[in-house]
Design goal:
The chain is an alpha/beta fold. Among the domains are: 3-101, Immunoglobulin-like; 195-237, no CATH class. It has helices at 69-72, 113-165, 180-194, 214-217, and strands at 3-8, 15-17, 22-23, 29-34, 42-47, 56-60, 65-66, 78-86, 90-98, 100-101, 197-201, 208-212, 220-225, 230-235. The strands form five sheets. The chain has a five-stranded mixed sheet with strand order 2-9-8-5-6, with no helix packed on it. Strands 1-4-7 form a three-stranded mixed sheet, with no helix packed on it. β5 and β6 (56-60) form a beta hairpin. The longest helix is centred in the middle third of the chain and has 53 residues, at 113-165. 9% of the residues are buried. The mean pLDDT is 81.
Length: 237
Amino acid sequence: MDHTITAVFTDGQTQTVAAEPLYQWAYGQTLQFEGLDLPQAYQVDFSNFEFCGESIPRIGGPDGVTIPVEVLSTGSPVYAFLWIQSETAGKTWLRVEIRVIPRPVPDLDTPNPEEESAIAEAIAALNDAVEAAETAETNAQASAADAAESAQDAAESAVLAESWAVGDTDTREGENQNNAKFWALVAQQGAEHSGYAIFDVNDQDGQMYVTITDPLAQDVSFLVNENLGTLEVTING
């Protein structure tokens, strides 16, 4: 449970005892200082040793400094050490004693609020990852379905194109009598029956030669008008 205790310093005082004790195993505890001119950020070293031994540093601010759970869990008194810089007095060493009331060991299998917050954040991140994965899977399935549909449309278009080109695909009624190949054959048969003329330019002499099939040879003739430079067609009969 979050809680704040206060350490009050009077002029010239360098050691004091916090206004109230804390319970062993407590968490979320904050120590505030009164009567000191502290900067926006400062370091406080916490220890269970009054004069020597290891300490745990914490950075404090305008709202105080968080007391490490590690020093409260021992059940021994906690000491907070800090240095403040003064233009007149120089660097001053200060100490705060925090009394600790022993209590039974809590159920360590039950997470405290700080741990619950971390667990909640982890679960939220996991849920977000699962949701993102499910969304990606849905999008992939939709893309695959679209691709399959596009492939089916392309296949159907290819069959339809073949039907209009040459027929014989059984995709539409009358396709074998209504396609490009059929009408090309019809045109070819008509040309062979009625006759046709073929014009060809010889690359070697630069002359154009006309070949007329027999059915048309008696009916038309071609002549170049040298004065006008045009090709004239004469229909006989």
